[in-house]
Amino acid sequence: MEVIKVKNLTVTYNRKPAIKGVNLTINNGKIIGIIGPNGAGKSTLIKGILGFLPIDTGEVKILGKNVSEVLKKISYIPQKEQFDWDFPISVYDVVVMGRYPYLSLFGHPSQNDKSIVLNSLEKVEMIKYKDTQIRNLSGGQQQRIFLARALAQQSDIYFMDEPFVGVDAKTEKAIFELIVELKKEGKTILIVHHDLSRIKEYFDEIILINQTLIAYGETEKVFTRENIEKTYSGQLTILQKVNQLL
């Protein structure tokens, strides 16, 4: 089933074109990598789709509707750097934020909401830290909390911006196992990612982008030397790595 439709999407960021004329049709139940060099517009693509940045041209439909109509169906995990880790809030309270779309105005979490929050913390192995202030967490623990918040929202579509950055190998493995479980439940997961060595292992499909869409499709068909060369535009160290991988 088609879950995301992007037509001719162009977004300007800091007065410069960040992405231009992107067209995508994404079906459900896939783990999709968004791949490209620094400054290629990977994060901008996500933010444009979600309506976090104004778009210059184009149209986005999620589940056949405007984004504002399906916010409950969407979870977003930003880069850790976008969050104020000095803010005085506990791990539990951060994850409760995932239940906000289901609360009435001035409403308080129900027992069911609280149960979902605790279950989400259990899944990311952070239940014993529920009363800990977020500033006291390690980088890997912070990323687990972001994931728990997304799980608590019980969405159909997940957007993750560099979820594996700054985490150790054990945490990365644990996060990816949870992502696979989401896929088994029929969820769709889009992940901004930079480690080319993991692409074939992690993703069913990949989006290659460098301001414009270079290629999109099944990983086995799209992750080719020709497409990577187009995407990375002669960045020698990247291309050498790709030659080794391929």
Keywords:
246 residues, 35% helix, alpha/beta, three-stranded antiparallel sheet, six-stranded mixed sheet
Plain-language structure description:
It is globular, with a radius of gyration of 18 Å. α3 packs across α4 and α8 (225-232) runs antiparallel to α9. The strands form 2 sheets. The chain has a 6-stranded mixed sheet, with helices on both faces. The chain has a 3-stranded antiparallel sheet with strand order 2-1-4, with helices on one face. The model has no long low-confidence stretch (mean pLDDT 90). It has helices at 42-50, 91-96, 111-123, 139-153, 169-184, 199-202, 219-222, 225-232, 236-245, and strands spanning 2-13, 16-27, 31-35, 57-62, 74-77, 157-161, 188-192, 205-210, 212-218. Helices cover 35% and strands 25% of the residues. The two termini are 32 Å apart. β6 (157-161), α5 (169-184) and β7 form a beta-alpha-beta unit. It is of the alpha/beta class and 246 residues long. It contains 9 helices and 9 strands.
Helix-strand pattern: EEEHEEHHHEHEHEEHHH
- Catalogue the unreliable spans: none
User: How far apart lie the N and C ends?
Assistant: 32 Å
Strand content: 25-35%
Q: Radius of gyration, Cα only, in angstroms?
A: 18 Å
Mean pLDDT: 90
Give the % helix.
25-40%
Strand order of the largest sheet: 5-6-7-3-8-9
Q: Strand tally, please?
A: 9
Question: How many distinct helices?
Answer: 9
Structural class: alpha/beta
Could you give a short account of the major beta sheet?
6 strands, mixed
The gross shape turns out to be globular
